[in-house]
Amino acid sequence: MIVSKLSTYRRQNRTNKALWEFDNIIKSLYLLDYVDLPMRRSNVHKALNRYEACYWLGAPSPMHPSVKIQSIK
User: Fold this and answer.
1) Backbone phi, then psi, for 5, in 5-degree steps?
2) Is this structure's pTM higher than 0.90?
């Protein structure tokens, strides 16, 4: 909610810049964990494989609610 309100301002303000930088720090920390921790990589790959398996089987996905279940003939 705060980000959406700050995004409506036309000019760049310090709070908006600070939030963007904070987001970049969080992303960087996650990426470093992904590179350094084999368990993190394994969990991400398992989750991606699970999602892709459901997608190819035609199961509805919470990420894409427009996907319909298709019957296999």
Assistant:
1) -70, -40
2) no
In Å, how far from its chain's centre is CA 56? 20
**Tens of pLDDT, residues 4-50:** 666 666 667 888 888 889 999 999 999 999 999 999 999 999 998 88
Q: How far apart are CA 2 and CA 25, in angstroms?
A: 18
Q: Where are the alpha helices (DSSP H) in the chain?
A: 2-7, 14-36, 38-57
Rounded to 5°, the CA angle 33-1-13 comes to 85
Q: Are 51 and 63 in contact (CB under 8 A)?
A: yes
Q: How far is CA 48 from CA 2, 8, 13, 15, 56, in A?
A: 30, 34, 37, 34, 12
Q: What pLDDT score was predicted for residue 38?
A: 93
